[in-house]
Amino acid sequence: MKLDFSQPLYALAPLAGFTDLPFRSMVKKFDVDLTVSEMISSNALAHENAKTLKMLEKSPLEDPYSVQIAGSDPETIKRALDVINAREGIDIVDLNCGCPAPKVFNNLQGSALLGDPEKLGRAVETIKAYSNKPYTSVKMRLGVREKNHVELAKVIEEAGADFIAVHGRTRAGRYKAPVDYDAIREVKEAVRIPVIANGDIDSPQKARWVREYTGCDGIMIGRAAVGRPWIFAQIKEGLDEPSVDLIREVVLEHFDQMIAHYGDYGVFLFRKHLHTYSKAGLPGAGAFRNAVNTITDPAKMRGEIERFFSQEPVAGMTRG
Questions:
Q1: pTM of the entire predicted model
Q2: Is 68 annotated as a binding residue?
Q3: Which DSSP symbol is given to 34?
Q4: 99 annotated active-site
Q5: pLDDT tens, position by position, 163-203
Q6: Which coenzymes or cofactors are required (predicted)?
Q7: Where are the domains of the chain?
Q8: For residue 104, what is the enclosing H or E element?
Q9: Strand ranges, E, within 77-162
Q10: Is 227 marked as a binding-site residue?
Q11: How big is the chain by its Cα radius of gyration, in Å?
């Protein structure tokens, strides 16, 4: 398996609570090049927690496939890599240097590494040295409060990473601050390894602009793919807005995969996806969201999905 950066590479960003195996499988049907697991704690992996091990599972469609870990202690990372190394079908180990969540940050992981370039470099070196997978990558933000993105990118490159995904905000910027595409361009100009741009890319037009403006080697999309797994086909193939029939087909298949993967608990987990899928413009979306919030039975939930997504399309939507 070789990653091809001769053409722009399109990747699904890791999103905790969203980019599990069922969701990644749906996005993979719409021509995304690279999928990444949800962020996985290196400590939980090292202890071979059963729930954590399940997070490593992948769809046969996922090739290439990246596993993202959070960690900073080299010994813990090595133990986590022992578990990853024993698994077939993983092509990339990605280090999370962007998660702004307090519980991750306060554990000196995720975006906390942005404030300690030396520790960041050691973590990347550890993965590069001990992983038996073809690629090592890093997903980073621009800094903790102040931007030190060029310094960080150079540390990551020197430590042996094969490519970097850059979310164009600081940790303090969370998900609301304007994305600094100039900073992403500065990272691209500062390093020789491929750079993937991430942050507020939510349409084919925006993806094209970001690619041209930053000179990046790829585009990574996270939140804009939730409820719209077809966004990659829209960007790469010019797919039109999906018909009501296609949306229903996607939602039902996604739901069935959730039940297969999680059992009845998948009904509860799927509610958040239905909240976004239901923004397709069909009438009665508010009542539909209220209804699914109380359903616990898989058959009843599936029936409600079929009913809602079988309505006559409103103006601007197509049936077939």
A1: 0.96
A2: yes
A3: B
A4: yes
A5: 999 999 999 999 999 999 999 999 999 999 999 999 999 99
A6: FMN
A7: 9-237, 244-308
A8: helix 102-105
A9: 92-97, 135-140
A10: no
A11: 20
Q: What is the mean pLDDT of residues 288-293?
A: 96
Instruction: Report the share of the chain in percent with pLDDT over 90.
Output: 94
Q: Which two tokens stand for residue 148?
A: 């030190």
Pick the catalytic residue: 44, 80, 92, 99?
99
Question: Is there a contact between 56 and 92 (Cβ–Cβ < 8 Å)?
Answer: no
Distance CA 127, CA 183 (A): 26
Name the residue among 86, 164, 87, 94 with its Cα closest to residue 123. Answer: 94
Model confidence at 314: pLDDT above 70: no
pLDDT at 320 over 60: no
Contacts of 209 by beta carbon, 8 Å cutoff, 6+ apart: none
Contact 251, 279 (CB under 8 A): no
Query: Both tokens of residue 247?
Result: 């949306």
pLDDT of residue 2: 78
Q: Which of 130, 181, 136 is nearest to 158 (CA)?
A: 136
Fill in the amino acid letter for 240.
D
From 293, 320, 279, 219, select the one nearest 10 (Cα to Cα).
219
Superfamily for domain range 9-237: Aldolase class I (3.20.20.70)
Residue 253: strand, helix, or coil? helix
222 is in an annotated binding site: yes
Crossing angle for the helix pair 149-158 and 181-190, nearest 10 degrees? 40
Polymer length of the chain = 320
Task: Please give the Cα distance from 163 to 174 (Å, whole number).
Answer: 23
CB-CB contact of 26 with 258 (8 Å)? no
Each residue's pLDDT tens digit, 9-55: 999 999 999 999 999 999 999 999 999 999 999 999 999 999 999 99
300-312: average pLDDT: 94
